[in-house]
Automatic annotation (TrEMBL):
Gene name linked to the record: LOC123042631
Subcellular location: Cell membrane; Endosome membrane
Xref: PANTHER family: EH DOMAIN (PTHR11216), OS04G0669300 PROTEIN (PTHR11216:SF145)
Protein name in UniProt: EH domain-containing protein 1
Domain EH residues, every copy: 19-113
Major subcellular site: membrane
Amino acid sequence: MESSSADSSPTRSWGLKEQRTVYLRWFYLADDDADGRLTGKDALKFFAMSKLSREDLKQVWAIADSKRQGYLGFAEFMTAMQLVSLAQAGQDISQDTLAHADLASLQPPTMEGLEKKLKKSAAHKSSSDLTAYHPVQTSLSANWFNSKSGKKIAMKSVTSIIDGLKKAYIEKLRPLEKTYQYNDFVSPLLTSSDFDAKPMIMLLGQYSTGKTTFIKHLLKTGYPGSHIGPEPTTDRFVVVTTGPDERCIPGNTIAVQADMPYSGLSAFGTAFLSKFECSQMPHPLLDHISFVDTPGVLSGEKQRTQRSYDFTGVTSWFAAKSDLILLLFDPHKLDISDEFKRVIGSLRGHDDKIRIVLNKADQVDAQQLMRVYGALLWSLGKVLNTPEVMRVYIGSFNDKPIRETAAGPLGSELFVREQEDLLSDLNDIPKKACDRRINEFVKRARSAKVHAHIVGHLKNQMPALMGKAKAQQKLLETLDEQFAKVQKEMHLPPGDFPSVDEYRDTLSAYNFDRFERLHTKMVKDVDDMLAYHIPDLLKQFRNPYE
């Protein structure tokens, strides 16, 4: 019976480089449309040659597609093949087995009939095709956003969950947002880079609570342009992300780069963009996650008036884009200033992303730490309007050894465990990134639908001829009552409605008479998208062996 394993003899050297060459040929064969993505349909045919059971292949796919994207890129395909090889050798299919296996010397799996398919493929495709083939995920979905035609996007062009969300946004949600100026009231229109962006972690806190040091601790090195000191050192918003070399890119430049998800920050003007930069460096962690380092929140009303841009507005913008928000405190800075209170208030609607970090905890002894912890929870309880207790990580997140003289042996053990818990939380972020995108997309759709109902309602309340200015003023003054009417008439959840005061401030600059009336078909399209399209999309790109 013909089967294919390594293309080299046993005497020839074998390592990860040789594995990559062999698996590249296999991936090239399996990737029919050469888009760098192996979907479930293609995988079913290719993986069947391993002769593993359906249950085993289900586990292989689940581990390889840990980010739940609905497809395998080349790196994930290599992981899948390594798991298949381990399974054929009688080992358990698990993340733990993979972590402890000697992957460098692991032989490729036996794939029945693969050699014949490779020869057949070689007869139709020249070796130069394989040499030129780079399995980069070259989805054409980025071009969908540039198209001005009203053409529907073919379903065959959708090769991942993210592609499906882009299609749903362009065809269903974006028309509603444009019609009712959602981008002026709530959030700018989305671009392709907003969907494709890596998961992001934002760090917030008062000055000298260890935000920059925390990033340095995770990266095991400082990032370009970082400066650490006891005084307020980070005076700007810095996005730390991956790049081919170490460099800092100014805010005005980064805001106009189409492949970066920061174009929406242009709305905050040059005053902000001059205080914004992107710090790029090659780093394995940054291939999966980006960090946002923020200026220290200072106390006192004077500090707020000195800022030349809307600080809370910027933090709110980043909060919507972030997958995790870390609020850092240290034992000597537990007070929550007026500005910090506003900043935490701007995180409304993102409670599930917030984690509290009590940093520099080894600066106090165990008894003091217990009191500090209680005081922190008491302070937060007055600001965070949630009945649940926020998760607080206690530790000293820097490169220095823990001060056991203050912490004691019990404190040292506690800090190690807390750090492990936090790092575990951070490691899960890339795996949950796709789920988070779906969650944020659904939240946005519900918010846009409520916005359309509000705008349509305000338009309907305007008189046809006389007294328009007076009617508009009355509607603004009774906006909370108008919200209640819309909620009752349309049976909408109160939690989906925006802040009345913030909405009133934005509405005051508009002429209600120029608003569009409610287009029920547009709203129905969004409802159908939420009720049918998104569930069908998840079903289409779930584990193909389920």
